[in-house]
Amino acid sequence: ELLPDQRPPAFTTLAELAKAGVVEISHAPARPPSGGDVPVLTADDVGAGTDPSGTAAAGSGLIMLEPGDVVATAAGSARVVTAGGAALGPYLTLYRPDPRRLDPRFLAGFLTFAHTRTGTGSSRMDLRRVRIPRLSLERQRGYGRAFEEMAQLTRTLREMSSMGEALVRLSFDGLLDGHLRPRP
What we know:
Blueprint: E1 11-13, H1 14-19, E2 23-27, E3 38-41, H2 43-48, E4 54-56, E5 70-73, E6 78-80, E7 87-88, E8 92-97, H3 104-114, E9 131-133, H4 137-176
Parallel strand pairs: 3-7
Antiparallel strand pairs: 1-9, 2-8, 3-4, 5-6, 5-8
């Protein structure tokens, strides 16, 4: 349930939160060591919401993900890491929030939906400039739950749209190849 709020909160930026030690920001190496069997979370995985699909050789330079980390693409997809053991892939940024001060789902929601509010027309944005409200951890968790519910609704709508498009395509195919005919 979403309610109107008469008191707009004060805002900060991700850069200010990093400077205050509330979140650590790390960037993946441009190319992880090739070969090997260390799972790597890719930008495509983050966008699609799938498990890590890449692999790399163990070695220096790999940034290993931990539960509660937030991983984001420059194009605006972000998600909370639920299981550790994978490395951060190229073109991704890791945000490691202090869980006593910043809720990961709250942060992921602002990173994901901030690009829709920029109006710049650019597919990339400087996520360090994202405005984030200064809220208590309890209120952050409420926002985090709401963001997660909206993200789930978005995934469901995309899936339904995809199924609808497949139904229409199969109907056209059926008409064109003679397996279906219109009612007279």
